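Long-time lurker, finally posting.

We've been working with Phosphate-binding protein PstS (Pantoea stewartii) and I want a structural starting point before designing mutants. I don't trust myself to interpret raw outputs, so I'm hoping someone here can both generate the structure tokens and explain anything notable. Sequence follows.
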Amino acid sequence: LNPGVKLPDTNINVVRRADGSGTSFVFTSYLAKVNEEWNSKIGKGNTVNWPTGLGGKGNDGVAAFVQRLPGSIGYVEYAYAKQNNLTYTKLMDADGKAVAPSETSFSNAAKGADWSKSFAQDLTFQKGNDAWPITSTTFILIYKDQTNAAKGAEVLKFFDWAYKDGGKTANALDYATLPESVVQQIRAAWKANIKDSSGKALYK
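Top reply, 14 upvotes:
Generated this for you. Predicted structure of Phosphate-binding protein PstS:
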């Protein structure tokens, strides 16, 4: 990534999460894909048997160690890093290109997944132009069978609004939006699967 750069002769202090976290799950999922030894010996999970490193609780704890210890490296979510002016790096994507984290590179990773099979997609190390290799989605679970039809319909209206008009708010908070093609698949799934007690679709 940085040919010709003179690096300091100092030990690297690894900082990782001490608590179980989705951030750790995504990060270790990426490591398991790009390193076979990591995959076979450590694997992926909300918590893993870390071979080294200091444990910090939450994004705050990891960031505090990284900022305080010389030569340290750690991982936090992008929004936290950006909003707290932390230094972050480019990474090699699945196509061998150096990519920086951004709302665009997150969306590019989402475009590379096959959403037709399932919405539970692992977006780490996805193929695609300028796709950030440690991308993840936030999942929302909704019951297919709604015993309270009015409440279920209002829930769908809220998330429909979020997809229609929430993009600017998400971007302002340094999160990315899903590609429109995926949003259309989600709406189709709502219509086909989320129904009231009589079998009537709640999303119209």
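Before you design anything, note these points.
The mean pLDDT is 95.
DSSP finds eight helices and five strands in the chain.
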